[in-house]
């Protein structure tokens, strides 16, 4: 007999699990609920410390999509002390472990397994992938009607893909991204394939009108002020210019200015 009968029951089970996890990981900053959507399922971030000789902070992101726990959660791993390849290896081990578990709430088991089995190297070596050139990109969005859902997904994706981002809301809706080129491309793919917003009739829709205004290698003098994911409103051209100056991307703004004029009213 299936443990959870239908979509509604599964959604309730996921909500109950999040509640239990909140009680277990109750220290400050230990657990964050990044998304709580009935259609897409909750996204939970659990921050854990592993290693005996060398203590290392690692962030685990669990997306409990609507069919969970009939199918395992999507998992992302990030840490400033690990290379991208090391994070990928840990993620794959967690996915393998999740696939081997029975179809029932499993996030706590996965975190425990992670804490007990992940070994932290005494010396961190940067992989070839980590040495890849960092890039910056500016995306132009068509509209944001379902603000909380849309912004929540953008924030979630930047964390999953280890990108820094800034969302500028005004006459033009711009997303500034910084990180590895494959991660930026995956972000753009998600924008065009996931229903992130609603159309004028209130029906859920994908961001098919998104345009990449620029994607360029990140120079040492450009973009050093971009960290995390920040949402910023602007009212005028001067404020938009200042927003790029604040993150040392004035040169990038100058390159996209003609495109913004073209797309203006």
Automatic annotation (TrEMBL):
Keywords: Cytoplasm, Nucleus. Residues 16-121 form the RWD domain. One of its GO terms (biological process) is regulation of gene expression. GO terms for cellular component: cytoplasm; nucleus. Its main location: cytoplasm. The keyword Methyltransferase does not apply. The keyword Cytoplasm applies. Pfam families: RWD. InterPro entries: RWD_dom, RWDD3, UBQ-conjugating_enzyme/RWD. It is found in: Cytoplasm; Nucleus. Enhancer of SUMO conjugation. Increases SUMO conjugation to proteins by promoting the: binding of E1 and E2 enzymes, thioester linkage between SUMO and ube2i/ubc9 and transfer of SUMO to specific target proteins which include hif1a, pias, nfkbia, nr3c1 and top1. Has no effect on ubiquitination. This is RWD domain-containing protein 3. It comes from Collichthys lucidus.
